[in-house]
Specification:
Layout: H1 2-25, H2 29-45, H3 51-54, H4 58-70, E1 88-103, E2 108-120, E3 134-136, H5 138-141, E4 149-152, E5 154-159, E6 167-171, E7 176-188, E8 200-209, E9 217-221, E10 228-230, E11 238-252, E12 256-269, H6 272-289, H7 300-323, H8 333-380, H9 400-415, H10 433-442, H11 445-470
Parallel strand pairs: 1-9, 1-10
Antiparallel strand pairs: 1-2, 2-7, 3-6, 4-8, 5-7, 6-7, 8-12, 11-12
Helix pairs in contact: 6-7, 6-8, 7-8, 8-11
Domain Neurotransmitter-gated ion-channel ligand-binding: 72-270
Subcellular location: Postsynaptic cell membrane
Organism: Astyanax mexicanus
């Protein structure tokens, strides 16, 4: 019996001997694995690690804990808070970071801003001993209800996503929620260019709920006029005179009334750029066209080339301004100035055309008279070298009876006393307009003399009227 028990013990030792050898050959394998896990997980979980938790993704485990804390799976967040009751108030707070660009051609502006929403959702309330809020990123935003605020009249908009989506969600223990997002939006701004470039533009960015009318959602400025804050914004062509918020209602025939918030700002254009690029060159071209009035009227190439050069330069300035502006159907202030200046330059060319024409007519008359006088003298001297009586027209003498009658009338008229002269009266013969025109046509240099004073005087008067109206 003893032999049988001894043989069984030896058989058991023989079976356990290979496992013992393996453990003795690799004694630190399990220990190294535990140390590796401990070094990487001790910092996150305080050194207390369950083996099952080690195999899971730490991010997913935290998100599951957050969803459990906020009881997201227990509620239907497709419905707004307090569905079936009164409208949920949603406060708005905006901080304008920059006004990136303003386009007159497209009539729009681009703005980057921080848009913050404030509301209360009791479904997200959670117990907290220290009453501290919890902050989350865009991953949790997709699982809860957020206001569907959009920008009215926007052309393009996007949420910044570098390095991650610029979205912040902060939940307080009592259910109050702060939702902040950084957006760049390009919106329409209806501009009036009747006073361009001496204009002031009123633009606004409008916010509104897309799906919820005033019975379900009430938009309002969180802190009144202090809800709109701006950084220091400097623009190249405009000066921002005012930034102010306002609110109102918008009506749609199919869905009803909606609350609408406005971000209003007033832009006043810097005119110095246009003075350098448009107004000063135009003035110089007009003054340059007056130089032809001091050039001799017989110098045709000089005066014609000067007039054509100024006309072409004015055409180039007008074309350059028109290409950088929208094609509006009304007259702008810069158009008034450019086209009237172009008219002055054009009239200076027409003035020389009139001077040249009258000068040519005058010289032709003098040349014709000189030829006639030479012809008459040669014809008279061809016969006997003296003038003949037949060439002289003599009026016949009046009869004697007529002379006596004239003497009696003159004697009777002399007996009537003349009226005394009135003090301050002076007799002047009025000459018709045709006389003055004939005088100017026969003396064409008078046109240049008058133009030297009339053109500058008229242009100065035009500038006084223009700047007093549009400034």
């Amino acid at each position: 019996m003893r032999l049988i028990l001894l043989s069984l013990r030896l058989l058991c030792l023989a079976c356990l001997w290979p496992a013992t050898l393996l453990n003795n050959r690799f004694p630190n394998r399990k220990k190294n694995k535990d140390i590796y896990l401990g070094e990487h997980a001790k910092h996150k979980y305080g050194g207390r690690i369950d083996y099952k938790v080690k195999k899971q993704d730490s991010t997913k485990s935290l998100l599951i804990k957050t969803e459990q804390l906020l009881r997201i799976e227990e509620h239907d967040f497709a419905m707004r808070p307090g569905f079936g009751g009164s409208a949920i108030p949603v406060g708005i707070d905006v901080q304008v970071e920059s006004l990136d660009s303003i386009s007159e051609v497209n009539m729009d502006f681009t703005m980057t801003l921080y848009l913050r929403h404030y509301w209360k959702d009791e479904r997200l309330a959670f117990p907290s001993g220290n009453n501290l809020s919890r902050t989350f990123d865009a991953r949790l935003v997709k699982k809860i209800w957020v206001p569907d605020v959009f920008f009215v009249h926007s052309k393009r908009s996007f949420i910044h996503d570098t390095t991650m989506e610029n979205i912040m969600l902060r939940v307080y223990p009592d259910g109050n929620v702060l939702y902040s997002v950084r957006i760049t939006v390009t919106a329409l701004c209806t501009m009036d260019f009747s006073s361009f470039p001496l204009d002031t533009q009123n633009c606004s960015l409008e916010l509104e709920s897309y799906a919820y009318n005033e019975n379900d959602l009430m938009l309002y400025w969180k802190n009144g006029n202090d809800s709109l804050r701006t950084d220091e914004i400097v623009l190249s062509q405009f000066f921002i005179e005012e930034f102010n918020p306002s609110n109102g209602l918008a009506f749609y025939s199919s869905t009803g009334w909606y609350n609408r918030l406005y971000i209003n700002f007033i832009l006043r254009r810097h005119v110095f750029f246009f003075m350098l690029q448009t107004y000063f060159p135009t003035m110089l071209m007009v003054v340059l066209s007056w130089v032809s009035f001091w050039i001799d009227r017989r110098a045709v190439p000089a005066r014609v080339s000067l007039g054509i050069t100024t006309v072409l330069t004015m055409s180039t300035i007008i074309t350059g301004v028109s290409t950088s502006m929208p094609q509006v159907s009304y007259v702008k202030a810069v158009d008034v100035y450019l086209w009237i200046s172009f008219l002055f330059v054009f009239l200076s060319v027409i003035e020389y055309a009139a001077v040249n024409y009258f000068t040519t007519v005058e010289e032709m008359k003098k040349l014709k008279q000189a030829k006639i006088s030479e012809f008459d003298a040669a014809q008279a001297m061809a016969f006997d070298g003296c003038f003949h009586d037949t060439d002289v027209e003599l009026s016949p003498f009046p009869p004697l009876g007529d002379l006596s009658m004239d003497h009696q009338v003159s004697s009777q008229s002399s007996t009537v006393p003349d009226p005394p002269p009135v003090l301050g009266m002076r007799l002047r013969r009025t000459r018709p307009l045709s006389y003055h025109l004939q005088l100017i046509m026969s003396n064409s240099y008078i046109i240049d003399s008058y133009s030297r004073f009339l053109f500058p005087l008229a242009y100065v008067l035009f500038n006084i009227i223009y700047w007093s109206i549009y400034s």
